[in-house]
Amino acid sequence: MRDQPASTGSSSETCTPQTRADDITAKVHFHDLHPTPADMRADVHQGLALAQKRLSPKYFYDAHGSHLFDAICELPEYYPTRTEIDILRRHGAEMAERLGCDALLVELGSGSSLKIRVLLEALRPAVYMPVDISKDHLLQSAEALAATFPSLQVHAVCADYSVPFTLPVDDHEHPRAAFFPGSSVGNFEPPDAERFLRRIGDLLGSGGRLLVGVDLVKDVQVLEAAYNDADGVTADFNLNLLARINRELDADFDLTGFRHSAWFNPESSRIEMHLVSAREQKVSVAGRNFAFRKGESMHTECSYKYSIEGFHRLARRAGFEPEQVWTDSDQAPLFSVHCLVWRG
Ligand code: AVJ
User: Fold this and answer.
1) Residues with Cβ < 8 Å from 18, sequence gap 6 or more?
2) Model confidence at 13, in pLDDT bands (50, 70, 90)?
3) For a designed S-S bond to 6, which of 20, 30, 76, 267 qualifies (C-beta 3.0 to 4.6 A apart)?
4) Residue from 187, 234, 260 to probe ligand 1 pocket by mutation (most atoms less than 8 Å from CB)
5) Nearest 5°: phi and psi at 232?
6) DSSP conformation letters of 78-120
7) Are 84 and 213 within 8 A, CB to CB?
């Protein structure tokens, strides 16, 4: 294994659950696959040159964006997080049985690693491998988790899961499983989601299981409220993308010159998030100029909503067999968690 401890320090006996966050010194193996820096400029330039300007949602998650996302998850309007956690709480034992113990468990887009905590008691993996694009957030969360579960081997991987990567450990003794909560699969266009799922299947190997959270089609008002919260946290999250580009790509977006907009597109069954130019304006990004008409939008995120059958069709096209699905209710469920088996 090529890895290095992310931190060393006082012995684990001094780590009690009461320890302050900055005192947590549990040992986490850290693998930095160095996502983004070189590609972000080219990516942003390319997206802004399109007739329908576009920015990738993966750039939302700088340090501030990751915190804003955590705040979104606590909003009364944003039902997915609490609904999914509730499903994990109620059916975690059954899910653990499906995934099996002693596994190498990869979590894609682990963020604050809160959801996995619900499963860890039932699911006793040998190795937990959180993968996230946001390095500091990943490290803090991985260390906090390792402090609560001292016998768990934690290998944190800083990587962009939307592009191919290989697991940075040479481990073939544990069966593999993957956890992809939050309905982040909905951020991919369906053909990309299919390609992505196939890649995850290849990482898992034959018979490997994927536990994936999928937000469901529902009443438009409920959907749209979740992306247009009254406190404007989602608007801040969307606009933070411009603040990040200003800082990291030497750009001059005027954050007061763009407004957040999000709606459900029923033809494509997706929420679309945009940043709309309030006036005609020019913006310079790393030496290139881009013109905006008044009312012109940059498309910053798609969040596809599926029916259970629709997601099963996608999973099958990708080479997975749906094994079981759990929802928050039988009538008009909001959210679903699927266990899929890789058939290759
Ligand atoms: C975590 C990507 C699934 O699409 O609902 C929340 C991100 N964007 N509010 C979603 C998000 C705006 C979230 N995902």
Assistant:
1) none
2) very low
3) 30
4) 187
5) 75, 20
6) -HHHHHHHHHHHHHHHHHHHHH-SS-EEEEET-TT-HHHHHHH
7) yes
Query: By alpha-carbon position, which residue is closest to atom 2 of ligand 1?
Result: 184
pLDDT tens figures, 130-160: 999 989 999 999 999 999 999 999 999 999 9
Q: How far apart are CA 98 and CA 78, in angstroms?
A: 29
CA distance 66 to 83: 20
Return the closest-CA partner of residue 74 out of 263, 223, 234, 218: 234
| C-alpha–C-alpha distance, residues 185 and 91, integer Å | 21
Structure tokens at 282: 């020019």
CA of 307 to the centre of ligand 1 (A): 18
Of 156-165, 210-219, 274-283, least confident by mean pLDDT is: 156-165
Residues 177/102, Cβ–Cβ less than 8 Å: no
Q: What pLDDT does 302 receive? A: 98
Q: Which of 184, 218, 240, 268 to mutate to test the pocket of ligand 1 (most atoms within 8 A of CB)?
A: 184
pTM score, two decimals?
A: 0.91
pLDDT tens digits for 56-84?
999 999 999 999 999 999 999 999 999 99
Ligand 1 lined by 184 (C-beta under 6 Å):
yes
In this structure, the chain runs to a length of 344
Distance, in Å, from the CA atom of 316 to the CA atom of 237, rounded to the nearest integer, reads 34
227 C-alpha vs ligand 1 centroid, how far in Å?
A: 8
Whether ligand 1 lies within 6 angstroms of the CB of 234 is answered as: yes
Tell me if 303 CB under 6 Å of ligand 1.
yes
What is the Å distance from ligand 1's center to 77 Cα?
12
For atom 5 of ligand 1, which residue has the closest CA?
A: 303
